[in-house]
């Protein structure tokens, strides 16, 4: 709840409305609308209901900064908010719950666009992944691609299906079956099915894009076919890098100790290719990460890796730790893969870390291992040495080729 403002309505009704408009609303929802002194919503939503006795207010743009003042203005009025479908599913309801507090809300939902789409397609909703592209880069869909998987993509406007289709085709998913479901629930509802390779034109703004993922097996790079959504372990060749990369097997143990969770913020300090930050953000759609890398060329490479692997919102800071860390948002977890020996880096990370947060440090050199051992002796935690050997050809034979050993320290801030 927003404690800073006391001028807020005691109760706000939030009514979900479908494309069928007023006829599809329950008596309870209709009553909430007709009794309102102030009715808030988009122009499209307001046009779906009869003229109320109260005042109609169209959402301002940009919306979020204006909300506190808007609700303070109508603090003494009976306020009703119109939302699309289920207000708590990628809708305004969740935003209002954070702003006003859930105890002030009466939410009257309609079926969401996802529920309607699954009912039309015969897809079990619990087996269907939802990708929200409203206000987000289209590359976010790449993190959810899985040969044979089913996706429902929520678009921001009528150009979304064409842009998604183009992206899928570029990444070897051209044969994917795409169904554009327009104006779900309305009398003029329409469906169209084609492939990603064939779909290019724009569609109605009010739509859901269904994707049944299929791949071009002959031309698709091996790492693109690897099933990784929700689990760490992208192959090393999935990343563009100059050798500064947390290798796949070490990365898996690193992620296990960082323990990503929805909404958590990670600092990836000395990020190199950004592989740990990318894996963190792929763990859940709401995971966030900041990659800190002093080299501008590497920082640009991190951004390219993030976009290509489906997490384009990864924040990249080009700067040197610890100076570059001082003004960043407080993290829930920190990974230090480079710069361990720089003065005050570990101290700055531990001080910034939220209580209960995790710090994981990977050390390769004797100097960095000495620093990590000293911190372990003072704070405890878990200290392990990781040795990886891979089979490789030697002449006409095969032998084990060892990689450099990594000393890994993980600790929880008390």
TrEMBL record:
<dbReference type="InterPro" id="IPR029063">
    <property type="entry name" value="SAM-dependent_MTases_sf"/>
</dbReference>
<dbReference type="InterPro" id="IPR006365">
    <property type="entry name" value="Cbl_synth_CobL"/>
</dbReference>
<protein>
    <submittedName>
        <fullName>Precorrin-6Y C5,15-methyltransferase (Decarboxylating)</fullName>
    </submittedName>
</protein>
<dbReference type="InterPro" id="IPR000878">
    <property type="entry name" value="4pyrrol_Mease"/>
</dbReference>
<keyword id="KW-0489">Methyltransferase</keyword>
<dbReference type="InterPro" id="IPR014777">
    <property type="entry name" value="4pyrrole_Mease_sub1"/>
</dbReference>
<dbReference type="Pfam" id="PF00590">
    <property type="entry name" value="TP_methylase"/>
</dbReference>
<keyword id="KW-0949">S-adenosyl-L-methionine</keyword>
<keyword id="KW-0169">Cobalamin biosynthesis</keyword>
<dbReference type="GO" id="GO:0032259">
    <property type="term" value="P:methylation"/>
</dbReference>
<dbReference type="InterPro" id="IPR014008">
    <property type="entry name" value="Cbl_synth_MTase_CbiT"/>
</dbReference>
<feature type="domain" description="Tetrapyrrole methylase">
    <location>
        <begin position="12"/>
        <end position="199"/>
    </location>
</feature>
<dbReference type="GO" id="GO:0008276">
    <property type="term" value="F:protein methyltransferase activity"/>
</dbReference>
<dbReference type="InterPro" id="IPR035996">
    <property type="entry name" value="4pyrrol_Methylase_sf"/>
</dbReference>
<dbReference type="Pfam" id="PF01135">
    <property type="entry name" value="PCMT"/>
</dbReference>
<comment type="pathway">
    <text>Cofactor biosynthesis; adenosylcobalamin biosynthesis.</text>
</comment>
<dbReference type="GO" id="GO:0009236">
    <property type="term" value="P:cobalamin biosynthetic process"/>
</dbReference>
<keyword id="KW-0808">Transferase</keyword>
<dbReference type="InterPro" id="IPR012818">
    <property type="entry name" value="CbiE"/>
</dbReference>
<dbReference type="InterPro" id="IPR050714">
    <property type="entry name" value="Cobalamin_biosynth_MTase"/>
</dbReference>
């Amino acid at each position: 709840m927003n404690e800073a403002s006391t001028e807020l309505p005691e109760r706000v009704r939030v009514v979900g409305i479908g494309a069928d408009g007023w006829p599809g609303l329950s008596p309870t929802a209709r009553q909430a609308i007709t009794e309102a002194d102030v009715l808030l919503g988009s122009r499209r939503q307001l046009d779906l209901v009869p003229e109320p006795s109260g005042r109609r207010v169209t959402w301002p743009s940009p919306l979020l900064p204006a909300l506190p003042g808007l609700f303070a203005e109508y603090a003494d009025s009976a306020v009703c908010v119109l939302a699309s479908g289920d207000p708590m599913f990628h809708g305004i309801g969740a935003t209002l719950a954070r702003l006003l507090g859930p105890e002030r809300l009466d939410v009257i939902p309609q079926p969401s666009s996802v529920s309607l789409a699954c009912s039309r397609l015969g897809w079990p909703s619990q087996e269907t992944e939802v990708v929200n592209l409203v206000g987000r880069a289209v590359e976010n869909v790449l993190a959810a691609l899985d040969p044979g998987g089913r996706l429902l993509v929520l678009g921001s406007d009528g150009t979304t299906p064409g842009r998604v289709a183009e992206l899928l085709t570029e990444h070897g998913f051209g044969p994917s079956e795409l169904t554009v479901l327009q104006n779900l629930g309305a009398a003029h509802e329409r469906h169209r099915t084609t492939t990603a390779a064939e779909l290019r034109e724009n569609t109605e703004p009010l739509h859901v894009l269904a994707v049944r993922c299929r791949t071009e097996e002959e031309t698709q790079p091996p790492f693109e076919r690897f099933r990784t959504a929700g689990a760490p372990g992208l192959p090393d060749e999935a990343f563009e890098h100059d050798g500064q990369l947390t290798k796949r097997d070490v990365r898996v143990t690193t992620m296990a100790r960082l323990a990503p969770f929805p909404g958590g913020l990670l600092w990836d300090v000395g990020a190199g290719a950004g592989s740990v930050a990318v894996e963190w953000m792929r763990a859940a759609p709401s995971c966030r990460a900041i990659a800190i890398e002093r080299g501008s060329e590497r920082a640009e490479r991190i951004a390219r890796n993030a976009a290509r692997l489906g997490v384009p919102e990864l924040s990249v800071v080009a700067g040197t730790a610890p100076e570059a860390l001082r003004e960043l948002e407080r993290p829930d977890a920190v990974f230090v893969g480079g710069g361990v020996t720089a003065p005050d880096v570990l101290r700055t990370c531990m001080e910034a870390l939220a209580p209960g947060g995790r710090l994981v440090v990977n050390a390769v050199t004797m100097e960095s291992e000495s620093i990590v051992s000293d911190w372990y002796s003072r704070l405890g935690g878990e200290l392990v040495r990781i040795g990886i050997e891979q089979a490789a050809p030697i002449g006409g034979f095969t032998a084990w080729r060892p990689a450099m050993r990594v000393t890994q320290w993980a600790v929880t801030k008390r």
